């Protein structure tokens, strides 16, 4: 009688990496009105009035401030839309993105 050999089935799950995150950074300028910056932060990044004011003041005092962290596509889209809102009003408001470490 032949001997039956059974092998255990191994399930292989592909390891899924989390997407790399990117910081959206507000750059200070001395021309864009503070209230406009707060309005953009509230509208685009859904910050509260208090959070938006703190981000704006931090950028004003230090020159830059991290607004939020998102996946690359979301970060770039939000930074572009916020920068474009400033350009539409004639202000040099600038947001950039960079990889989070």
TrEMBL record:
UniProt cross-references to Pfam families, sorted A to Z: ClpS
Keywords assigned: Hydrolase, Protease
GO biological process, one term: proteolysis
InterPro entries with a match to the protein in the record: ClpS, ClpS_core, Ribosomal_bL12_C/ClpS-like
Region (Disordered): 80-101
Molecular functions per Gene Ontology: peptidase activity
Domain Adaptor protein ClpS core, chain residue ranges per copy: 18-96
Family of this protein: Belongs to the ClpS family.
Biological function: Involved in the modulation of the specificity of the ClpAP-mediated ATP-dependent protein degradation.
Quaternary data: Binds to the N-terminal domain of the chaperone ClpA.
Protein name (Swiss-Prot/TrEMBL): ATP-dependent Clp protease adapter protein ClpS
């Amino acid at each position: 009688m032949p001997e039956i050999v059974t092998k255990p089935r191994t399930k292989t799950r592909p390891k899924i990496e989390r997407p790399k995150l990117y910081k959206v950074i507000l750059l200070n300028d001395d021309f864009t009105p503070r209230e406009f910056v707060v309005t953009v932060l509230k509208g685009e990044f859904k910050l509260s009035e208090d959070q938006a004011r703190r981000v704006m003041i931090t950028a004003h005092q230090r020159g830059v401030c991290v607004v939020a962290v998102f996946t690359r596509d979301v970060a770039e889209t939000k930074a572009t839309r916020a920068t474009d809102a400033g350009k539409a009003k004639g202000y040099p408001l600038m947001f950039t993105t960079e990889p989070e470490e």
